[in-house]
Design goal:
Length: about 80
């Protein structure tokens, strides 16, 4: 478990690399300097919040990601490689 490993490693600061390197999902109002500030208002909450994914110093908007259709994948000798 990630949290248990951080506790064992005495991670006690948000500046710690072990914490910074974790993928974090946030639902917040983007900062005013964000380049995606005006992008797709349909994906915002009532107060202007939007979903974001953060890791280290990168924060990216999360909106149109397609995760695929895994159950519909046909397994053949070619796809099994």
């Amino acid at each position: 478990d990630i949290v248990a490993k951080m506790i064992r490693s005495n991670v006690d600061s948000v500046g710690s690399f072990m914490w910074q390197s974790q993928l974090k999902h946030k639902f917040r109002v983007p900062p005013s300097h964000a380049r995606y500030q005006a992008r797709d208002p349909a994906l915002r909450g009532e107060s202007g919040e939007r979903a974001e994914v953060a890791i280290c110093d990168a924060i990216l908007p999360y909106d149109y990601e397609y995760l695929g259709n895994g159950p519909r994948l046909v397994i053949t000798p070619l796809t099994d490689r």
